[in-house]
Design goal:
eight-stranded parallel barrel; binds beta-D-glucopyranuronic acid; six-stranded antiparallel sheet; Immunoglobulin-like; 29% strand; single chain; alpha+beta
Length: 628
Amino acid sequence: MLYPRQTWARAFIHDLTGMWNFRADDSVSRRQGFDEQWYLHSLSKTGKVIPMPVPSSYNDITQDKGLRDFVGWAWYDTEFYFPRELLNKRIVLRLDSVHYNAIVWVNGQEIMRHDGGHLPFEGEILGHQLSVDDLNRITVAVNNTLTPTTLPPGEIIYENDTNRYPPGYFVQKLQMDFFNYAGIHRSVKIYTTPKVYVNDITLVTDYKDDKGFVNFNITTSTSSPSDLRSIDVVVRDAYDHVVGKAGNLKGTIDIPNPNLWWPWTMNTSSPAYLYKFEVTIVTKDGEKDNYLLPFGIRTINVTNTQLLINDRPFYCHGVAKHEDSDIRGKGLDFPLIAKDFNLLKWLGTNCIRTSHYPYAEEIMDQCDRQGIVVIDECPGVGITKKNNFGPVSLSHHLKVMEELVQRDKNRPSVIMWSTANEPDSALPEAVAYFRPILEHTKALDPTRPVTFVANQDVNKELVSQYVDVICINRYNAWYTDCSHTELIQRQLGNDLHKWHGKFNKPIIVAEYGADTIAGLHQDPSFVFTEEYQIEFMNEYHQVFDSLRGDFLVGEMVWNFADFMTKQEIIRVVGNKKGVFTRQRQPKMSAHLLRSRYYKIINSTDVYKGHSGKLGFNHYSNIFPNIIG
Ligand code: BDP
């Protein structure tokens, strides 16, 4: 499945962004919509509908608490015209992300179903299912219920004590802290391709001396290449000059003097250099398809102590993020994407983790373009109960990794696949569960390291032996020994040494952080104040500095920005561990981090060695009193 990109052969892409009709099925069974077949008619004819923006989460759009916290099936529909002259094409309906289960109908006929948010799915609409004289209708039913076998897992608890709860009362229990935003989160598009079309492209790049290699494998909808009159493969540089050619579906193209793809902090002259891979096929009947894929030439390797990009050690000074915003929830939001990338650069960040689910392709495009490296994580967060490790969960998890690798395999920014966040990897069941997931992911893509993010005690950890890079989350002086920042260096230092001693693999600290209410100050520091967050982070930074260049290959603060959570007594309107507020204003900690990251950029020999010192000196002493 290729992302719908406009080319001369694929000019028609109709984006259904806008106000859709919306109706939550609040019947006790949540099945009224199916019983009454709401998909057969315009939703507005079935009962009261409200306008709902697509893309967005439906939770924070209205003033209705019931809808914010709704669990069950919610229904959407919208209408569109389809051009008569395109009826002879292959017509595809693509939804970039619907959370969680989705069923999609066109003019009352079911087109497809999909389980799981954050990843795209598509299906063909047949010409006879469409009208060219009248409006057509798309209906989408979305169910946000999380169960022991969904990713992330959750549980519906029925409360049977009628002294305390009305009959049929249930609550959704979550096993992660972030709010379970739901709805049609990303774009919905109708596009066409020729009937014989380019189905998939896999690119694997390499280089040696002054030559780059682009190993390509193209699949088309026709299984027999003899159905094709011609195949033209062309590689263009950033100026659109042709730098390589081929005439087959599989092979290697040599690129003389390649511009390698580098993270933006590692090359001043041409960071994040993107080439274009263009394929044109012509069938015996003269039908033509054409697809253009941006890509970069780079390699990733791992040793016992290092993560290498293009054979140079890479240190990740990054942030773990969330897709989260006021009002839109997890809905695709271009101004927010642009702002976040400006803030990532302002911070001096060279790496993000897509905690705890795959981010929008529009975000990934910016990572490729702007040179931000990505640890690409699947929605395997909160796999902590024994009933989350069964065969149904496993087969779904394997499928999700396939969908993720399929979606992002050609992205130069993606340097690692993360299969989960904080599962109970000390349970014996975890080995039988994660070993095949890690091995399967590696088999799908042998070119990138695989990992999961651990939080167990090193002595109890069972799964990390199967990863390439160890990622761990640590909350010393927050969830343990709260307020005792004086213990951080001793505890974290000893801990990291033990992890490396036991597994002999490079380590990234993938989370560390303290909840901080912006504007709350107290000196001496006190938990939840900005002073505490700074003091806390400074202690972690001392440890990171002592191990950087040894086996520590990255640090990621938790979190880039404050984000919404479920309601619980340890959160005051959301998780406040951001270095930015939810509205993207900096806390003191953002300035501290910025100062630190620019210092790292300036002082890391490998960056100097490659392309000269970057011109960011003036950032390193903005807060000399803070960084000491
Ligand atoms: C970590 C989780 C992350 C939470 C964080 C926290 O990985 O999703 O938001 O704790 O509690 O354990 O702030």
